[in-house]
Amino acid sequence: MLDAWVAVDGSAVLGHLVLARPGEALALAVGLPSQRLVSVARLFVSAGARRRGVAARLLDKAIDVAEADGLRPVLEVEAGATAAINLYERAGWRYVGSSAADWITADGRVAQMHSYIAPSGDQT
Fold first, then answer.
1. Is residue 32, in this structure, part of any structural domain at all?
2. CA atoms within 13 A on the CB side of 107
3. Is the pLDDT at 43 greater than 70, yes or no?
4. Mind listing the pLDDT tens digit for each residue in 57-99?
5. Could you tell me the sign of the dihedral formed by the alpha carbons of 29, 31, 35, 39, in that order?
6. Distance between CA atoms of 7 and 16, rounded to whole angstroms?
7. Using CA atoms, how far apart are residues 8 and 11, in angstroms rounded to an integer?
8. How many domains, in total, are found in the chain?
9. Are 101 and 110 in contact (CB under 8 A)?
C-alpha cells in the first residue's frame, strides 16, 4: 500500500480507496513501466452513499496525488461491474484491454478483468 483515503460523513464511512504498486501484468497491459504507475487496488463506496459522487472524488484525489508524484494511475475491474466501468469511462479512464483472471465469479464463470489507465493532462 502506498496511500489510502477514507470518505466519511460524521462517523459513517462512505467509501475507501487504496493506491498500491501495480503488478507487471497490469503494467504490460497499459504499455508503461510499472515504476511509472500506481494501481487503484481497492475502491468501494457504501450502498447508501452511491450516486453521490463519493467514488469520483476519491478517484480525483488518487489521480492528483499520483500525478504530483510523477505516476499514472491504472486499475482493473471485473467485466460484470458495469456501474464501476461506467463511472471510470465517464471520468475519462481509457480502456486498454482485458484478460482472464485466476478466479471464478459467483455465477460460475472465469472472471474477465478490464484494464484502465487514468486520464492525464500530459498524456504520459
1. yes
2. 5
3. yes
4. 999 999 999 999 999 999 999 999 999 999 999 999 999 999 9
5. negative
6. 6
7. 7
8. 1
9. yes
